[in-house]
Specification:
The protein is α+β, with helices and mostly antiparallel strands and 308 residues long. The protein has two domains: 105 residues, Tumour Suppressor Smad4 (Sandwich), CATH 2.60.200; 121 residues, no CATH class. The protein has three helices and 18 strands. It is elongated.
């Protein structure tokens, strides 16, 4: 009797396993049923380019420091007594940054080799990232430049041999599903609307929005305010996957601008993580309140690592 019970349990488990496998396969097929090969190839190429860009010298993966400057002299190097402490493989004392009247000047100590465009630097004024003529300096595998955020000036530091860059294996994504390529209508604001976009530092930037994107998912209407980024529209959005399968502070997405009929294609399969997912040294914008969607957008990139 006991043997028969064991056989029954064994057969039941086998049937259950087959059933679960069937359900899993069916779900995957359902996710892909509206994804033709050409479209799938387009998304895969987009994602490959995204990964390639993340591995470049100017990517977010090699950021290893962000140091806000105080007015006056700021000593820097790897020694603990400096105002700005670089990673320990840097020289103990490299020099000083002096912030005076919105101007940042660097002075390098004798015996330390710092370069600008392959020329050795002793002293120079550094242009910040918002000037369009940013000054980037280097020493061994380190590169640094000045950023301006509000009234603050900071030193952003890269290490081209950063561990995260070497360990990076890619980003997990939701299955590609063409159902998440949504047609939206661009509805102009007359006059254009000013919105405040918060960032992860607690600051806010004013942006002018010329119109909203109106679209439907599962017969429910949604709206997003896009930022004009020149030749494209930039979306900072949140949804109900945030904090679970995606980054808690939302994701980014670019679209082409509206055509002559006002149509815009929002492809959520191209939704991607903001840089703050990879490093605590980025200063990411956050979704404005009206861009938080009350729906799960199960498309695009999932959370990378622990969200850092």
């Amino acid at each position: 009797m006991l043997i028969k019970q064991k056989e029954f349990v064994s057969k039941t488990l086998i049937v259950l396993s087959v059933f679960l496998a069937f359900i899993s396969t069916s779900c995957k097929e359902n996710l892909m049923q509206n994804t033709d090969p050409a479209y799938l190839n387009e998304i895969e190429q987009w994602h490959a380019k995204r990964i390639e860009n993340l591995k470049k010298e100017n990517s977010w993966l090699n950021l290893v420091g962000l140091f806000w400057l105080k007015p006056g002299v700021n000593k820097f190097g790897s020694a603990e007594g400096n105002d700005i402490v670089f990673p320990e493989k840097a020289p103990d004392y490299i020099g000083t940054f002096t912030l005076k009247d919105s101007v940042v000047t660097i002075k390098v100590l004798p015996g330390v080799k710092v370069f600008f465009n392959n020329l050795e630097v002793r002293e120079m004024v550094m242009q910040n990232d918002l000037t369009g003529n940013q000054t980037t300096l280097s020493h061994d595998s380190f590169k640094w430049f000045i950023i301006k955020r509000g009234d603050r000036y900071g030193v952003r530091l890269r290490d081209l041999d950063a561990p995260l860059l070497k360990e990076f294996k890619g980003i997990e994504r939701f299955p590609v599903n063409k159902d998440w390529q949504i047609e939206a209508a661009f509805v102009s604001y007359n006059p254009p609307k000013k919105i405040m976009v918060p960032n992860i530092l607690g600051d806010s930037d004013e942006e002018v929005v010329t119109g909203k994107l109106v679209f439907k998912i599962e017969n429910k209407e949604f709206r997003l305010d896009p930022i004009d980024s020149g030749d494209r529209l930039f979306l900072i959005f949140g949804d109900e996957t945030n904090g679970e399968s995606t980054y808690g502070a939302g994701r980014f997405l670019y679209t082409d601008k509206q055509d002559s009929t006002g149509k815009v294609i929002i492809d959520f399969n191209k939704a991607y993580n903001p840089p703050c997912v990879f490093t605590k040294y980025a200063t990411c914008p956050l979704p404005p309140e009206q861009n938080r969607l009350e729906i799960k957008i199960t498309a695009g990139e999932k959370l990378f690592g622990k969200g850092r």
